[in-house]
Amino acid sequence: MLAISVSRSPPTRKIRLSSILDFDLKERVRSSVDILDVISATLEVQPQGRNFVARCPWHNDRRPSMTINQERQTWKCWPCDIGGDVFSFVMRRDGVDFPTAMRTLADVAGIPIEQYTGGKKTTPGSPDDRDTLFAAMKLVADEYFDLLDDPRTDDAKIARDYLASRGVNDENRKRFRIGFSPDSWDHAVKLLKDNKFSGEVAHACGVASAKQSGQGFVDMFRGRLMFPIFDLQNRPIALGGRLIPEIAARHGDKAGGKYINGRETMLFRKSKQLYGLQLAREAIRSQGQVMVMEGYTDVVAARQSGVEPVVAVLGTALTPDHVKILKRFAERVVLVLDGDTAGQKRADEVLELFIGESVDLRVLTLPEGSDPADYIGEFGRESFEQIVAKAPDALDHKLNRLTEGVDFKNDTHAVTKAVDTMLKIVAKAPEGLRVDQLMTRLSDSFNFRVERLEQRLATLRTEARNRGRAQRIAPPVKELTQAPQRIVYEKLPPLSGLDLHLFETLIEQPDLAASAVEAIDPDWLTSITAKMLLSAYQDLDLRAMPLDGKSLLTMIENEPLKNALVTLLTRVDERSGQRVDTPEQRYADILTRYSEREKSREIASVVHGMLGESEEDALLRKLFDEEALRQQNRPK
């Protein structure tokens, strides 16, 4: 008889020095916010039995199919097969990574995250304290909003009348929190001082400027319509001001530019913010596209007409960071440009940003002398949406511009230059059907053979790669506040068979998990999902943390695995009290079956190695295989 033993050595693992702090911070943040409050801030939530439900924003949900379990602090959309905890929801809602979601929720909970991350510790009330700047900015933005309604001043009435003349109704004034800054040098500075904020704080949050002579600070915005700029958590982080002609006339040449955009601060980076994104993101997701405009009033006018997926840049051209942010929410971006020469130039500038990002960029150039607000006001929403739908692909737009007025038969130089310009742009695009189609079009348009164009394209790509290698430097260390890449969530295979029964039992009776960590060999498990879940248990055990569902949710940062865990938790909840046998009995049976299965596999492996190729050996091997299969499929 063959003596075969099944044994294993427990894996050796090292714990990062910061791991306990990481776990403590995650658990503190998670326990300090209520997932129901976070979800209901952007979705309409209603009770259903012991839980709550909402319409899922990630599919066309006609009846609420997202379940929120307030007791367990989890959410799950069954049609989408996605779910998790409060971190998971914020990551999907805002299209951000885990550290950014952590900071967002820490800010909501009022937890100073720098104490855990080793960042610079700040003093409340100081100009380098983020919470102080958020509070100061909100105070000023709310004050400006209220002042536009102030019946006691003539200037407020002038501002209201001007806003009305621009076609903005009261509903949208409130939606965008449009306000008015008095024609005063120190209104905001005094307001903040009266509320115990220093002049340095007023300057640091971007509402004041340093005096040109002497010490002290003066208001940055005076006698203007005010457009607060919000982050994705709907917190004001900066302000933009528009000139009001009647008030500006008092100051002549000193009135300043038509628009003044807020200065960059700790809270605000022009290259990473888009006006109106916090209001438009759900419409962008549901419609699969976003329209990028050039000004505040364009966005307000579009929204007022019923066009919702609209944002605007903030005093700067589109940047690579803007592209990354937009990609989190939609693959189709329509750049809506004013009908002037400057608009055409801006289309050329942003084209190359999108080429390497695999974004479907469309360019809509409005009729000459028209901006989006004017066009929508004159022709209406339906006409605007029709021209948006017909907006050409950015590459087609560029090709049309390059070939406009070119004599294809006689102007050889112009044709060759246009082709080479297009190929240099295409060289930055990822290979695929889109490039193949464009090459065919170039061939048809310029009467060049496709093979000749492809040779030139290959040369340009080689040159670009060589330049890249020569200029390559080490990538910067990713900071907690860095603009995150678009998050891609891969599916994990579902738990099944013995693996499913094992983890259901451990969830139902956490006291068994310590034994399972020692007894279960990862090689026994049949799916990567099961192995990852066991690894999470092992990590908790090494940290001497409770081996329960709550701790697992805190430990796991992999979103597909967290979704699998929520599914498992829900399944255990639904079957609670329905089992006749005890968790201890099931666990003992599961271990026995794992052991029998491994023994059968090892016997089969040994026998296969001993047998030759004779007919009798083949028959004997078949019998062993059938016995191993019988043991594996033993009735539950």
Automatic annotation (TrEMBL):
GO terms under biological process: DNA replication, synthesis of primer
Cofactor binding, per record: Binds 1 zinc ion per monomer.
SMART domains, per the entry: TOPRIM, ZnF_CHCC
UniProt EC number: 2.7.7.101
Sorted UniProt keywords: Coiled coil, DNA replication, DNA-binding, DNA-directed RNA polymerase, Magnesium, Metal-binding, Nucleotidyltransferase, Primosome, Transcription, Transferase, Zinc, Zinc-finger
A single MF term (Gene Ontology): zinc ion binding
Zinc finger (CHC2-type) boundaries: 56-80
Enzyme class label: transferase
Coiled coil start-end: 443-470
Domain of life: Bacteria
Start and end residues of each Toprim domain: 288-369
UniProt function note: RNA polymerase that catalyzes the synthesis of short RNA molecules used as primers for DNA polymerase during DNA replication.
Entry comment, domain topic: Contains an N-terminal zinc-binding domain, a central core domain that contains the primase activity, and a C-terminal DnaB-binding domain.
Subunit structure: Monomer. Interacts with DnaB.
Stated family: Belongs to the DnaG primase family.
PANTHER family: DNA PRIMASE
UniProt xrefs under HAMAP family: DNA_primase_DnaG (MF_00974)
Protein name: DNA primase
Species per Swiss-Prot/TrEMBL record: Rubripirellula amarantea
Gene: dnaG
